């Protein structure tokens, strides 16, 4: 299931409330909540460092928020750097 633009923006907006403006701009500036496969949400971040920090510190928050917005249980959040998204498509 592909995440719509509205759902992507809704997840990002809720994360902004949790992490605050400065951290959001640093980590989530170029984030894309892309697709769900069974119970895995694929997220793409601007680089490896942002992806690692997002996954380590905010995967649980993202899964809870995404589960509510997508109306589907999300148990795993996999955050990858953008260059992997571009090579897949």
Describe this entry's structure for a reader.
With 89 residues, the chain is α+β, with helices and mostly antiparallel strands. It has one domain (5-88): DnaA, N-terminal domain (GMP Synthetase, Chain A, domain 3, 2-Layer Sandwich). 58% of the residues lie in helices and 20% in strands. It contains four helices and three strands, in the order ααββαβα. It has helices spanning 5-19, 21-27, 48-70, 82-88; strands at residues 32-37, 40-45, 76-81. A three-stranded mixed sheet has the order 1-2-3. Helix 3 (48-70) links the parallel strand 2 and strand 3 (76-81). Helix 1 (5-19) crosses helix 2 (21-27) and helix 1 (5-19) packs across helix 3.
List keywords for this structure.
89 residues; alpha+beta; GMP Synthetase, Chain A, domain 3; 3-stranded mixed sheet; 58% helix; 20% strand
CATH architecture: 2-Layer Sandwich
Give the total of beta strands: 3
Major sheet: size, sense and barrel closure?
3 strands, mixed
The CATH class designation is Alpha Beta
* CATH-defined superfamily: DnaA, N-terminal domain
Strand order of the largest sheet: 1-2-3
Number of domains: 1
Category from helices, strands and their pairing: alpha+beta
Shape: globular
Kindly state the percentage of residues in helix.
Answer: 55-70%
CATH topology: GMP Synthetase, Chain A, domain 3
Q: What is the rounded Rg?
A: 12 Å
Distance between the termini: 16 Å
Low-confidence stretches: none
The portion of residues forming beta strands comes to 15-25%
Count of helix runs: 4
Give me the strand/helix succession. Answer: HHEEHEH
Summed over residues and divided by their number, the pLDDT gives a mean of 93
